[in-house]
Predict the structure.
Amino acid sequence: MKTLHSKAFRRRAGQLLATASVVAAALAFANVASAQTLTIESWRNDDADVWNTKIIPAFNKTHPNIKVQFKADPPTEYNAALNARLAGGTAGDLITCRPFDASLDLFKKGNLIAVNDVKGLENFSDVAKSAWSTDDGRTTFCMPMASVIHGFVYNKEIFDELKLTPPKTVAEFHAVLDKIKADGKYTPIAMGTADQWEAATMGFQNIGVNYWKGEEGRKALIEGKQKFTDKPYVDAFKELASWAPYMGDGYKAQKYPDTQNLFTLGRAAIYPAGSWDVPIFRKQADFEFDAFAPPVVNAGDKCYISDHTDIAIGINAKSQNMEAAKTFLSWVASPEFAEIYANELPGFFPLSKAKVDVKDPVAAKFVGWRGTCESSIRNSYQILSRGTPNLENELWNVSAQVMNGTMKPEEAAKKAEDGLASWYEPHKK
Amino acid sequence: MTDLTAPSVQSTDVVPARSRFPLHIAVFLAPALAIYTLFSIYPLIDTIRLSLYAGDETGARSFVGLQNFQTLLSDPNWSGQFWNALRNNLVFFAIHMVVQNGIGLGLAMLLSLPRLTGGSVYRTLIFLPTMLSVVIIGFIWQLILNPLWGIAPSLLKAVGLGSFFGPWLGQESTALLTVSLISVWQFVGIPMMLIYAALLNIPDDLLDAATVDGAGPFSVFWFVRLPLILPTLGVVSILTFVANFNAFDLIYAVKGALAGPNFSTDILGTFFYRTFFGFQLQVGSPTMGAAVATAMLVIILIGVLIYLFGVQRRLQRHTF
């Protein structure tokens, strides 16, 4: 009886195996059939709409036989999710590149291919490529897409009501804040420290460039000629600390969406912004708003802006559709893409040399500062965030603490410097 | 509730002596063993193996022995964060033990009152948050406690206590406590249900006999019911311990992976996440992450062993 059973079992198993192999074969076939589909990995889940209805259809007009799929994760989860998918071999063909080390790391691990030979790369300047090139600048591994610019967005109606003019210097800025506060109806500065990055990015990096003179200070920091404990950096922290009385009730528990809502509901006058906020405000705010550049310390000083190379696109080394992916990258480098991107997503400014008309007036104002002020990128991004403790994480932490009043500006500067000096040779002296 | 240590069922049939290997045992064990090995034992062992390696920038890994653990415990950049996370985790656990299990016990006692009407309604309502997603819980509570448009500040103002409100989720001194209490609110249903089931198991004869002997309600609780539900309290404690030291999701949903302000809500789970997956510009290190995971395993193992040898063996089980 036992043998009979096992025979029946074996036959059953045989059938099962046969079915399984047929299914597997069918799946494999399906895979081959869809070989011309490119999948884009991205953290810009806010832009999914624009990609699906504008950018991809525009690409398909000239390249009808390459299907493109846009797949986005939330920004905070992107790096982790992408690394997991790359390790598991399930990542998409095209990978949206974070600036500097996160992408450099992917390139060194062989997850991204060099794009030096991809047509269109010549449309970008060395500065534009710097965020996605090896330290020696010889190999570029992502096609630059866009940068974001920091500044301040303000509610024009509130400014008109209180008869205020956009400030040019730090002193004027504080005078404006005092007037709004004295009036009492509106929160002067919409900003929260709960997410920490707001304090570091919209605060420290936004205004800081005017203190450390943009690229000059950023490069000096990398070379070890300046330290975070030097005057410009301490002064930037001091300025941040002075904002606290002008921020909303309970700003310590206020998150980024709260901040955006506070401004778009017309309850706050000034919003330390990234240019990527412009399209969101365009949709949500029913009042007129405008922008002013980060105030300079003394009237007549040269102005600097944080014009941060933020987003690029590269090719997964394991992609099955290498040629199609390169074709797409060349198209990303074209003026046509720059035009669509700049106007569908005002606030993300194309990095290519091609002249692009930005139609949104506020976004155009942001990009206009490129002509009047010196551009720089965030000082923690290149090289300095390679060690432990991570400088970018430290700046988030101390900037939020300075604004919360739990740390003095000098202590914040010392903590950032000590962390950097613990692993970075040029700062050890 | 399953009684894990119940004496094995005594068979009255005489089992005939067998010389060959009892194949059916292997057959019955195989499915569970295979699944458990594949999804639990193998990853666990591989994690420990991985923690003994270090990767370089090309992704190549080499064996480094216990160096990762040495870094974790002696390099101030790592050990500071590690001890801070462990300390916060202990606070997180202590709050759950006292508040969650205390309230759970109280609620179970109330539910087992003989003349309670609508008991099943309360039971369902209190258990409901446990079934919700952590992301929803985090979102709801952030809205409730939001200083700008939350209902907590307006409610407090309505009763004249407005000055007591603070941005609790954003202050270093209160953030961990607040997050812990949100987690307590979510999971209080679990100890309640377990203890409630244990209370129902106590035969009425015992309680009646105690009452006849002259014991008041307090004595009945202290001398009759509590000793009888001690094994359940033990199980509840160990479940709380393991769950708390594996916790991650609520903190991540409410405070993000950087667990601010100033790492005051950082627990081992979020510390592990940052180390393994990286964060913003911090590049993740799978090998160092594996070392943190192994350290967490050791900590949980120590806790469970203390419970097993220090508590479980002394507990007396009563079967009725």
Remarks:
- DSSP finds 17 helices and ten strands in chain A.
- Residues 2-33 of chain A form the longest helix (32 residues).
